[in-house]
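Chapter summary example: a protein plus magnesium ion.
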Amino acid sequence: MELELRAETPDDTRAVGAAIAGCLRPGDAVAVTGELGAGKTTFVQGAARALGVTEPVVSPTFTLVREYPGRVPVVHVDVYRLDRLQEVLDLGIEEVAEEGVLFVEWGDVIEGLLPRDHLVVELSSSGDDVRRVVVRAVGGSWAERWEPLARALEPWRADGGER
Ligand code: ADP
Ligand code: MG
C-alpha cells in the first residue's frame, strides 16, 4: 500500500499532513523520513494542527522529544543523529505514545522500534519547492483504513492510482 503525492508549497505539505491526520487514531505512529530540509517538520506541523494542537510545532532537534496537548496528544521525536538512537530507546516511545499519535522524524532509522503497524511518509526534493511525498502503510490495521486515506489524499496524487 503506497501512494505518491506532490506538494508544491510548504502549505501544501502541511495540508497533506492534515489530511493524513484525519485518518489517525491514538496509538498510531508515523515515521517521517527525508533529507534535512525535505519538509519533515513542516509535515508534522500540519498534522499536529489537524489533531487539535494549538501550540506552534517546532523542530525537536535539541530536546529530542516534544509532547503537545491536543484533541489527540501529539508526540514529536527527531532522531537526527544515529547516536541519539539509544536515548530514544531509553524513552520507551511506545509507552509515551499509547494515548497519542507519534511522529518520528528520520523514522527510518528507528523503524524497527515503532509499533508494527505504522505509516511511513517519505519526503524528497529535487531542488525547487516541489516535494515528492510517498506514503506507505505497514501492518494489517492500515488495510481497512487505506481506502479512506487514499481518498483524503486524492488532491495531491501524483501517481494516478493505487499501486
Ligand atoms: P526537515 O524537518 O525535513 O529538516 P523542515 O520542514 O524543517 O525540514 O524545512 C523545510 C524547508 O523547506 C522549510 O524552510 C520550508 O519552507 C521549505 N519548503 C519549500 N517548499 C516546501 C514544500 N513543498 N514542502 C515543505 N517544505 C518546503
Ligand atoms: Mg525537522
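Key point: The first helix runs from residue 10 to 21.
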